[in-house]
Specification:
GO terms for molecular function: methyltransferase activity. InterPro entries: Methyltransf_25, SAM-dependent_MTases_sf. This is SAM-dependent methyltransferase. Helix content is about 40%, strand content about 25%. Helix 5 packs across helix 7. With about 210 residues, the protein is of the alpha/beta class. It has one domain: Rossmann fold (3-Layer(aba) Sandwich). The two termini are about 25 Å apart. Bound molecules: S-adenosylmethionine (SAM). The site of S-adenosylmethionine has 18 residues, from strand 2.
């Protein structure tokens, strides 16, 4: 699935920008449900960016293996560099690409997507992004999602509007408005098991199963 976005240009400054706007709050949201990952799990991280979440999963979850699927080669380079710099150990299979880089018959206990579902339109999410990932999620698997949800407060609406425009310009993301990804997951046959609102309600950390 080629969605056209390219985070290579923004990759070196992505984490710094996120910190400038949100402090550590986006990171805190992403780790809320990491303790739901069973030991020895096979984990698929999709769009993990510069690798902070990879470090957290390696340190906190003791997975059997991680596939790190990222369309941005710069992000993958940063994530690999982070592993080396921090002397992180664990079996990580870095793949530059999208779902087409998944191997047939591959199955995962856990899929993690943080601030990725919001890049797409409803149609792309439902027809192109979610189905191939669901194919590789074990029947007993869990999907950990952290992402923006429709804000109710005016300043949050304005911030989201600016962010979407910024990433359309700098990374060519497809979304023009925030997609209702929860509905997308439900339509794809998943069930929401847990949810915690973060960042003043504009981010939701969730656990989904079949
Ligand atoms: C908004 S960034 C979020 C990065 C990271 N998850 C974080 O929260 O810091 C979205 C990331 O998803 C990646 N991405 C976009 N489409 C993808 C796809 N179809 N498969 C894998 N990665 C993708 C981008 O390259 C980018 O690094």
């Amino acid at each position: 699935m080629t969605t056209g976005s390219n985070f290579n240009w923004i990759a070196p400054v992505y984490d710094a920008l996120a910190f400038m706007v949100f402090g550590h709050r986006l990171r805190r949201a992403q780790i809320i449900f990491l303790n739901r990952i069973p030991a020895n799990a096979s984990v698929l991280i999709v769009g993990g960016g510069a690798g902070w979440i990879l470090e957290q999963v390696l340190l906190k979850c003791h997975p059997k293996k991680i596939v790190y699927l990222e369309t941005s080669s710069q992000m993958v380079a940063l994530a690999g560099g982070r592993m080396l710099r921090k002397s992180l150990t664990g079996f990580v299979d870095f793949r530059v690409g999208d779902d087409t880089a998944l191997v047939p018959d591959e199955q995962f206990d856990v899929i993690i997507t943080s601030f990725v579902l919001d890049l797409f339109t409803e149609t792309t999410l439902q027809t192109r992004f979610l189905p191939p990932l669901l194919n590789v999620l074990k029947p007993t698997g869990i999907w950990l999602v952290t992402d923006f949800v429709q804000p109710k407060v005016s300043w949050q609406k304005a911030l989201l509007w600016v962010m979407i425009r910024f990433f359309r310009l700098t990374a060519g993301i497809e979304a023009k408005t925030l997609v209702n990804w929860q509905q997308g997951l439900r339509l794809a046959g998943l069930v929401q098991k847990e949810r915690q609102r973060q960042v003043g309600g504009m981010v939701s950390a969730e656990v989904w199963t079949r």
